[in-house]
Design brief:
The complex is a heterodimer of chains A (114) and B (113). Chain A has 114 residues and is mostly beta strands. Chain A is 0% helix and 55% strand. Chain B has 113 residues and is mostly beta strands. The chains are: A mainly beta (114), B mainly beta (113).
């Protein structure tokens, strides 16, 4: 039972254009969402997060949008750069957890072409 | 501030053996979580320790265990290794209390032959 899904395993975008990565979730108890970026042979790097009380959070070139009614979030990268080429994971956490436990999607490989 | 460190980075073991992996969190972080990454199952939560106590546990068999020391360093142990345990094992730390953002180490690549 995959509670967090990233339906696009890969995405290819031209440098300078917008990259949009999508994520869907099923567990209505999730109240905090995060995006991580991962290069090969490295651990995931935290990018940006959003609480369920918001519908948008922005940090530089990265913006995350949350649509609670659709149980959908997306990460926008604008403008995309070749260094953004990596695997992106969305993750979710539920307030009812006693501590920290992230549920991850399967990841989307982003390729930004020069 | 130094990041999360994991040792060893690479490990090759034989079926039936046991293995211990180590993780040192970011200084001041008291929560340490472990995840397994495989091509088929993605990133899956193993367990979390906070102040030397296991606070959360994922859906893994009892062969997977862990502990945390008073300095917040953590170890995970896998006994009676199976071929399917071959994976990248990632450790993450987070700050005080219930902090959602977790910061990951580079991982330990375990190969079971």
């Amino acid at each position: 039972d995959q509670q967090v899904k990233q339906n696009s395993p890969s995405l290819s975008v031209q440098e300078g254009r917008i990259s949009i990565l999508n994520c869907d979730y099923t567990n209505s108890m999730f109240d905090y969402f995060l995006w991580y970026k991962k290069y090969p042979a490295e651990g995931p790097t935290f990018l940006i997060s959003i609480s369920s009380i918001k519908d948008k959070n922005e940090d530089g070139r990265f913006t995350v949008f949350l649509n609670k009614s659709a149980k959908h979030l997306s990460l926008h990268i604008v403008p995309s750069q070749p260094g953004d080429s990596a695997v992106y994971f969305c993750a979710a956490s539920a307030r009812n957890n006693a501590g920290n436990m992230l549920t991850f999607g399967g990841g989307t490989r982003l390729m930004v072409k020069p | 501030k130094a990041g999360v460190t994991q040792t060893p980075r690479y490990l090759i073991k034989t079926r039936g053996q046991q293995v211990t992996l180590s993780c040192s969190p970011i200084s001041g972080h008291r929560s340490v979580s472990w995840y397994q990454q495989t091509p088929g199952q993605g990133l899956q939560f193993l367990f979390e320790y906070f102040s030397e106590t296991q606070r959360n546990k994922g859906n893994f068999p009892g062969r997977f265990s862990g502990r945390q020391f008073s300095n917040s360093r953590s170890e995970m142990n896998v006994s009676t290794l199976e071929l399917g345990d071959s994976a990248l094992y990632l450790c993450a730390s987070s700050g005080l209390g219930h902090s959602y953002e977790q910061y990951f180490g580079p991982g330990t690549r375990l190969t079971v032959t």
